[in-house]
Sequence to fold (149 residues):
Amino acid sequence: MQIWVDADACPGVIKAILYRAAERAQIPLVLVANQALYTPPSPWIRVVQVPRGFDVADNHIVSVAEPGDLVITADIPLAAAVVEKGASALNPRGELYSRENIRELLDMRNFMDTLRSSGVETGGPAAFSQRDRQAFANQLDRVLARQQR
Fold:
């Protein structure tokens, strides 16, 4: 198992949780971004810098993710693509994407995108909270515990 992170938009507090988890569980953590990132020195953590461009990081993650891997992303189309390949996906707010829920989430995302493109003001996501951070950490712990059995 490897953990892949869609790192350009991943909150810093989530990256910090992931750094600690990778060290504790000794699981490779790969942050994929189109810019240079600082990470703590560790044999378990590395950064892959991809060229700038639309969906370049997402496409890289889809191409390298394997069944059993975990992808951290808030990007629902990316989550759908990796779930289709047999990987798991977890968003920074702690929601686990699965074969059972990804189609509905993708349909809702596409519906909201259609509304926005037609001029309807839909608002954005709520501010990232302590509750979101805790939900992510708890869900990550559950996923890692299942993998280590």
